[in-house]
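Weekly sync, protein design subgroup
Attendees: M.S., D.O., the rotation student, P.L. (late)

Item 1: inverse folding check
M.S. brought a backbone from last month's batch and wanted to see whether the design step gives back something sensible before we order anything. D.O. pointed out we never logged the input encoding, so this time it goes straight into the notes. Structure tokens as presented (152 positions):
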């Protein structure tokens, strides 16, 4: 497969998949009715932030694929699966506790990717830093929502 086709496939899979899952699992009435922490951002901020992050995730994934960095690729695929799983678990099934488990595992896989990609492919590792910061913030939101909205 040519490099440009590979790059395009990574973009389509990551950006397209992420946006599709986001659209399918829109927060809805359940989320609107939750008690939210004071630092909860407005809903309009999520689509542009995730679009930018998905582009960075795709480019980083393509870079480690293009260089055939097996360990980094494994962490990249793990984070993508966990990323795509979180919204259906949290919004679709309304399982904040299970969502918290998924997002913590996502955070660990992001850190793992940065760690194994740092030496051989530093640009890809650096592309994951904004993602790490955002998911750390999202983890704090998930914890806060879980604590503020006890399951009856």
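Designed sequence read out in the meeting:
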């Amino acid at each position: 497969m040519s490099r440009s086709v590979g790059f395009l496939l990574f973009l389509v899979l990551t950006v397209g998949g992420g946006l599709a899952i986001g659209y399918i699992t829109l927060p809805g009435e359940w989320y609107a009715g939750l008690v939210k922490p004071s630092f909860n951002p407005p809903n309009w901020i999520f689509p542009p932030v995730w679009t930018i992050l998905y582009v960075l995730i795709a480019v980083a994934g393509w870079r480690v694929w293009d260089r055939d960095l097996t360990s980094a690729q494994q962490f990249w695929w793990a984070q993508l699966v966990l990323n795509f799983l979180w919204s259906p678990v949290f919004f679709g099934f309304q399982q904040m506790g299970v969502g918290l488990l998924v997002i913590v595992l996502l955070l660990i896989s992001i850190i793992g990717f940065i760690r194994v990609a740092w030496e051989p492919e530093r640009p890809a590792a650096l592309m994951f830093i904004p993602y790490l910061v955002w998911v750390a913030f999202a983890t704090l939101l998930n914890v806060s929502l879980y604590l503020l909205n006890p399951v009856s």
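Discussion: The chain has seven helices and no strands. The chain has one domain: 3-148.
Action: P.L. to compare against the previous round before Friday.
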